[in-house]
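Onboarding guide, step 5: your first structure request.
Type a short instruction followed by the sequence, for example:

Predict the 3D structure of this protein.
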Amino acid sequence: MAISSLCNHPIKSHTELIPALGHKPKYGNTTLATFTQDGETAWKCTNKGCNVIGVHILYRLSKVTLNNTTVTYNAKAQKPSVTVTTRDGKKLSASYYIVSYKNNTNIGTATVTITFKNGYKATTKKTFKIVAPKIAKVSIYTPKAEKKALTAKWKKISRISDYEIMTAQNAKFSKRKKTMKASSNVTSVKVNKLSSKKTYYVKVRGYKKVGTKTFYGSWSSVKKIKVK
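The system replies with structure tokens like these:
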């Protein structure tokens, strides 16, 4: 004949061991956990024959962090992940909070709002920066003089879309200015249709296209050459 066991105490019948059922709690008054106090919920077991009562503790919130506080602009909404720890040093499950993001696409400061729930009562905000892509400064070599032309040369840089090359007949680049583009996988370009026997100034920079925006690096140092 089977015998029902109590919550945490297995009972041995004449023929078998009846496993413990485990408590079936009914929750009562609740104190919500915050950043300054623990939360607790009183409960009583509703299994027949069990009079156990207890308190379920939610440790107070301790720290909220983002996995990145500075990210590079990529033309998309960026969402650094959130980690919450409680006063016992353990990570809090994401089921206890809701995360929302604001101003998290364009360059500037984005805001993350964390709203707690399920026994917690608190709201906190974190910020992170969205910055422009970093474009390295190009190192330019002395151009090669040719007949009514010159060949600009430079050291390759990475993580760019293309290069921009500018030539002019003065160091301020206001006289007979000419601008050219070159693919990111080349390190030289020939500039034609220049005036014979004239001195030209040359500089180069890299740029990167991200979505509809273009980001430019600093110009290289300026080199000058007299064409043939």
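Each response can be followed by summary notes, for example: The radius of gyration is 34 Å.
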